[in-house]
Amino acid sequence: MSVVILGGNECMERRYKELCQSYKCSAKVFTKPAGGLKNKLGSPDLMIFFTSTMSHKLVQSALSELKGTPTRIERCHTSSLSALRSILEKHAV
């Protein structure tokens, strides 16, 4: 299962990837808004938005890129590992 995480804390990026690997998921993490998001996203199975640490504009641009794809979208206000764990338990198990 492929997972893309938008938002979150830079210092937690490695931990997000390790937690996803423990659920047998490959993860891409984008903590900062980056240009050319369309080319970097690909077609993930699950997209996670940590909305407290990202701009509204970034959320809207990512949603527009995913329109018409079968990607599942999860929004979470906190960017903690426990929040990510509960999302992965719901979708990856």
How far apart lie the N and C ends?
Answer: 10 Å
Taking all Cα atoms into account, the compactness measure Rg is 12 Å
Helix content: 40-55%
Structural class: alpha/beta
Q: CATH class, anyone?
A: Alpha Beta
Low-confidence stretches: none
Adjacency order of strands in the biggest sheet: 2-1-3-4
Largest sheet: 4 strands, parallel
User: Hey, roughly how much beta strand do the residues contain?
Assistant: 15-25%
Can you tell me the CATH topology? Rossmann fold
Q: Which architecture would the CATH scheme give at its second level? A: 3-Layer(aba) Sandwich
What's the CATH H-level superfamily name? Answer: Response regulator
Number of helices: 4
- Tally the structural domains: 1
> What is the succession of H and E elements?
EHEHEHEH
Global shape: globular
- Record field, number of beta strands: 4
Average pLDDT, all residues: 87
